Amino acid sequence: MVELFEVSSDEIKRIIPGTYEKVVKVTDAESGLVGFISVHNSAIGHAEGGLGISLGGLRMWPYSDEAAASGKSPETLALEDALRLSAGMTYKSAAADDGLGGGKAVIIADPAQYPAGSPQRVKLMHAMGQAIEMFAQRYPQSTYVTAEDVGTNVEDMKIIEQVTSHVSGTGHDAFNGNPSPFTAQGILAAMKEALGVKTMLHKRVAIGGLGNVGGRLAQLLIDEGAQLIVADKDAEKAEALKRRFPAHVLTVPASEIHKQPVDVYAPCAMGKCLDDETIPKIQAKYIIGAANNQLAEPRHGEMLYNLGKIYIPDFIANAGGVIAVGMEVKHKHEGKSLTLQEIGEVVERKIRTNTRRTIELSQGNNIPLSEAGMALANERLAAARQNKNWGEREEGRGANGKGWAHGS
Ligand code: NAD
To answer: Considering only CA atoms, which of 10, 372, 110, 194 is closest in space to residue 205?
Structure first.
């Protein structure tokens, strides 16, 4: 039986500072599901033009290595991840002005033990989908809509869609629902805007992590004539890229990627990669990548600033995917058509504008870029709170109270 247990604000505060709108632990003994749903802040979703929902990916991760290294339990680490990532989604969506609040969900499991297409994977995703549906019915003001993330994919979203409509990334019209190509496009746009160049021809870029985003970003950079140094925990991914593009690609071990003599370091794997140990060794002037929560602690943003680094905050640079999925949700809901070109143009424009504004805010106020990015997001959040339109949303929900997407 799928069950939800509310996580108290005291418990949250023991893990992370900040105020969270609604956080639950989800369990299901039959499928083995243990996870969390966190809605950090839905103000933007409830402002005028908002979609009435909070969106963020569903991460499937075992947290066992991190637990062994930190002495914390996988459950504590998963909750911490859901909290940090959902807050990141609030700021990302606020800066991107996409009409969405910030949420995130996590399943504590090793994706390798739930192979794609296996009955146990279907059971797990169905249980998570039921949990998301129950969450929407129990807390209609904080409705969470899921999407793919590390460890999950479009197929999983299609399975979840069988039990709840609170899911995105399943595609609409020409868009197949995969956010990664648009995230990669946005990172490239942020790089060009920050460097003030038309193309990345002859620029040197170090990419850590060649997954859905990093792999696509590598291809885009090679197409523009950049020189790459790449690394992946799975060394074969890096070697395969080098074999395909020997004139453009060098490989190094994953532990060395941040130390490379390049123009741009692009972290595209897991978060907390910018810390006391790594930052002093970074040679690149620019740090612009896809990984969420790159700063191990907020003070590392200041550390980068004091070293003269141009760090474009992750939630500014990597918003291309959520912009695309936000457009999917909106167009699907309104029954409008959607072209890839339309999405591409919006991603390019928003990421470039926000990158430029973040740099200007930092320079104009002598504040770290990490703070400037937050200032930009907070400006939009404050405007959304002023603009809050809860009453109208409530009426829009209909008698069943099930939320935005039912019947659409
Ligand atoms: P992914 O799982 O497809 O790829 C991650 C890659 O990083 C894998 O190839 C993995 O082997 C590698 N990796 C893991 N740990 C590593 C390490 N320590 N050193 C080097 N390589 C390592 O994930 P993705 O979808 O490409 O996302 C990458 C990052 O970007 C994640 O932090 C994700 O949250 C973030 N992000 C993704 C999107 C998106 O659209 N997919 C959007 C915004 C942010």
So the answer is: 194
Burial group, residue 399, by CB count within 10 angstroms (0-12, 13-18, 19+): exposed
User: What percentage of the chain reaches a pLDDT higher than 70?
Assistant: 95
Q: What residue has token string 């979609």?
A: 51
28: amino acid identity, one letter = D
Going by C-beta distance under 8 Å and a sequence separation of 6 or more, which residues neighbour residue 341?
A: none
The set of residues, in sequence order, having a beta carbon less than 8 Å from that of 356 and lying 6+ positions away, is 193
Separation in Å, CA 110 to CA 7, 150, 152, 280? 23, 11, 11, 33
Top mutation candidate among 268, 294, 312, 343 for ligand 1, by most atoms within 8 Å of CB: 268
CA 408 – CA 406 distance, rounded (Å): 5
Residue whose CA is closest, atom 18 of ligand 1?
A: 233
Q: Is 72 a catalytic residue?
A: no
| Helix, strand, coil percent values for the chain (each to nearest 5) | 50, 15, 35
> pTM above the 0.85 mark?
yes
- Residue 387 has a pLDDT of 66
Probe target for ligand 1 pocket from 212, 350, 351, with the most ligand atoms within 8 Å of CB: 212
For atom 30 of ligand 1, which residue has the closest CA?
291
Selecting among 104, 192, 237, 350, the annotated active-site residue is 104
Grade residue 402 by pLDDT with cuts at 50, 70 and 90: very low
